[in-house]
Amino acid sequence: MGEARSLGLIGAVEIVAEKGTNTRFGPSEGTAGVMVRDLCIKHGLMVRAVRDTIVMSPPLIISHAEIDLLVGTIKRALDEAEPALRAL
Asked: CB neighbours of 68 closer than 8 A, spacing ≥ 6?
């Protein structure tokens, strides 16, 4: 993960090959974003991929437990995608 940013409850997680750099996974920008997005959706979390950034916009009435679930699902998707991304 390169950077996590938010404005209100709209959040984004940038996916990079090496923290502190803009080095991307794969031959073209957007490879990692789509892979992580698909894993998040597979695990029940609807997010959007914008190139190599995962974007989420939870409801304003989200609970602390649901936020923990959201973050945990994104972490799980990142962990699952990493071996395949490193192999690119």
From this structure: none
Question: What 8-state DSSP symbol labels residue 80?
Answer: H
Do the Cβ atoms of 41 and 21 come closer than 8 Å?
Answer: no
- 83 token code pair: 């071996």
pLDDT for residue 19 = 84
Residue with tokens 């789509």: 34
List the CATH code of the domain at 3-86.
3.90.1150.10
What does the pLDDT read at residue 4? 87
CA distance 88 to 56: 26
Distance between CA atoms of 64 and 78, rounded to whole angstroms? 21
pLDDT grade, residue 57 (50/70/90)? very high
